[in-house]
Design brief:
Layout lengths: L1 H8 L12 H5 L4 H21 L3 E14 L7 E4 L4 E6 L6 E2 L4 E7 L4 H85 L9 H82 L2 E3 L4 E6 L9 E2 L4 E7 L11 H6 L12 E2 L2 E2 L1 E8 L11 E6 L18 E8 L8 E8 L16 E12 H10 L26
Antiparallel strand pairs: 1-12, 1-16, 2-9, 3-5, 3-8, 4-7, 5-6, 7-9, 10-11, 12-15, 13-14, 13-16, 14-15
Length: 492
């Protein structure tokens, strides 16, 4: 005991352990361990300058979730088309439904309103039938008047043509009478001259021949006034025919205008009655639309209106359920109930690939800080990590990342969400396969790193310590320096 006390009181003067103190000897660090520690510290100091030149990839982080790119394939609400009560649900949460499949039955608050609306529809239909009959009758009358006008004008025109022909004939007869008068006058003068010259020389022309020539001359002279009278009579007949044709034209035109006005009135009444009928018909169809069908194929996510005792009251447009559509081709129109019944309920297709031509089917919706927005551009490479997929990710060393998926920036919102964050959509990179939709569903949380460019690690440490911003976005000539290589644009 005395030796131990003296040992603690006096310091150890020699590096060699005291053979008389075994506890101190056993607590000494082995010389090999000290040498190893010294070597590691020396190696660390030697590696620090070299680490300053290690390539470091600058990234812009973002968090979000997966969504369908097409708005029609995102979760949507099934709303009530009428005001009433929920009678019966034909599906439960989690059921997969086809396009046009019956979801829920609704009933109106007033059980007799549909019957009354059908009576109003029947009365409106009868009034519409009468209005259609009046329009058809008026069209027939107008057609008859138009045909009668054509016939009367044709007859009047024929009479005018006859009168014109009579005037022409009378004028020709007048010309012929004047010609006959001139001929008989010349014959009479020649006969008279021969008669006078033959009185002393002998009788060449007898008196009877002279009297016959005078008689023919007088007869021809009498025919001229008669021919002139016939011309005047024919001209009067022509004027009367033309006046009658004009009167017939005006009279029939007035009749046609009257019938057209009556037809317009009938058409106006028909339009008013048809509008009233369509309004009542729309009300009937709205009330008959007490069955709600699935607009697209998908899965019932939530049922919001329950069929309680007596039925939960709902208003038009009130949400009944939430439907998550399948990622099928949006160019295919949803199958209507009538088509579904015609196809025997087999009209259902599921489109599994994650792209529709040049548009992605599912994308990652990430939110980034507004300070990093000027650095991000469309087509920038992105590394994504989806919730549920184990991954080893070193954001600044994408070459050694495992379990991540490649993508590229597909869309950048033009404005922020009100909190200084901007939304970007990340689509699968060209040639990159993401998990199938049955595993990678909408709403899966995702974390992404937008890759900018490589810089030395020493520069990055210096930048962080000084609070400098990240490097600006790559120029086209520098895209080859991207850690993922040249960016391949979609569709090119």
């Amino acid at each position: 005991m005395t030796m131990i006390r003296s040992a603690f009181r006096s310091p150890i003067r020699s590096a060699e352990p005291d053979l008389h103190l075994p506890a101190i000897r056993l607590s000494q660090t082995p010389r090999s361990v000290r040498r190893l520690a010294f070597g590691l510290v020396l190696l660390l100091f030697l590696l620090l300058p070299a680490a300053a030149f290690v390539p470091w990839t600058q990234t812009v982080p973002g968090r979000g979730q997966t969504i369908a790119f097409h708005p029609a394939r995102r979760p949507q609400f099934i709303v009530s088309p009428i005001e009433g009560r929920v009678k019966k649900w034909h599906v439960v949460e989690g059921d997969r439904v086809r396009a046009g499949q019956l979801l829920v039955d609704l009933v109106d608050n007033d059980p007799l309103i549909l019957e009354r609306l059908r009576e109003q529809e029947l009365l409106a239909l009868q009034r519409l039938t009468l209005a259609d009959g009046r329009v058809k009758d008026q069209e027939s009358r107008l057609q008859y008047v138009q045909q009668e006008r054509e016939v009367l004008l044709a007859e009047a025109g024929y009479r005018v043509e006859q009168a014109q022909a009579q005037v022409l004939v009378a004028q020709q007869e007048l010309e012929r009478a004047r010609f006959d008068l001139q001929r008989e006058e010349l014959n009479y003068q020649r006969t008279l001259r021969l008669y006078r010259s033959s009185l002393g020389e002998g009788k060449v022309v007898s008196k009877d021949e002279l009297e016959e020539a005078e008689r023919k001359r007088n007869l021809a002279k009498a025919q001229v006034p008669l021919a002139e009278a016939r011309v005047k009579l024919a001209e009067k007949t022509l004027a009367a025919a033309e006046a009658q044709r004009e009167a017939t034209d005006k009279r029939t035109a007035a009749l046609i205008q009257t019938e057209e006005a009556a037809l317009k009135a009938a058409l106006s009444e028909q339009a008013a009655v048809r509008q009233q009928y369509l309004m009542v018909r729309s009300q009937v169809q709205r009330q008959e639309n007490q069955r709600v069908y699935a607009p697209v194929a998908g899965v019932i996510f939530r049922i919001l209106a329950n069929a309680e005792a007596g039925g939960q009251l709902v208003r038009p447009g009130e949400r009944l359920a939430v439907l998550v559509p399948d990622l099928e081709d949006p160019s295919k129109p949803p199958i209507q109930p009538a088509e579904l019944a015609l196809l025997g309920g087999l009209a259902y297709s599921f489109y599994d690939p994650l792209t529709w031509g040049e548009y992605p089917a599912i994308v990652a919706e990430l939110y980034i800080d507004g300070n990093d927005l000027p650095l991000v551009h469309k087509g920038a490479p992105v590394l994504l990590q989806f919730e549920g997929w184990p991954a080893v990710q070193l954001a600044s060393f994408p070459q050694v990342a495992a379990g991540t998926f490649r993508g590229e920036v597909y869309l950048i919102d033009p404005t922020s969400d009100g909190n200084g964050r901007f939304r970007i959509l990340v689509a699968p990179a060209a040639g990159e396969e993401w998990p199938a939709y049955e595993y990678l569903r909408q709403g899966v949380r995702a974390q992404g790193w937008i890759l900018l460019r490589q810089v030395p690690l020493g520069y990055e440490v210096w930048r962080v310590l000084n609070g400098f911003p990240l490097v600006r976005e790559l120029k086209p000539a520098e895209e080859s320096a991207s850690p993922l290589g040249p960016v391949q644009r979609r569709g090119k």
